[in-house]
Amino acid sequence: MSEFDKIVTQEQAYLRLVHPTPEETPTCFNLFDTYLSCNAARSQVKSYYRFGQGTQCGTKLEDWKFCLGLKSLEPEQRQEAWIRRRAEWWAQRRLGKSSEDVWEMRAEPVPGFPKPPSEGDIKKFEFVPGNFVD
């Protein structure tokens, strides 16, 4: 079994927990709404600010088209097809480049962080009646 297939299997198991019934998977209307909001002015301005280019909404359009193609299936079949597609998308993201390619994830916290409060720190925050700032 390839690494991609292992990740797809993991993602499918997770998505089945998150979306246990067909009613909890996104509808075509929800996916179309997501596509429209991706093209909205607010999303475009935020994308230009963060990345210097407009949002890339092609995948959201493809998700909507995929959903329209599932309309003739039974709800359980539709849910399985959607979970498979979403799991493959997540698997591609996990195998692609990410911040983990630059930074290594810590297995344990940094020793001594956060620093435990000292006696002086605690006294700074003690409540003393009559010491109010007006």
TrEMBL record:
Highest taxon above the source species: Eukaryota
A Pfam entry, by short name: PANTS-like
InterPro entries for this protein: Pants/Emi1-like
UniProt protein name: Early meiotic induction protein 1
Organism of derivation: Dendrothele bispora (strain CBS 962.96)
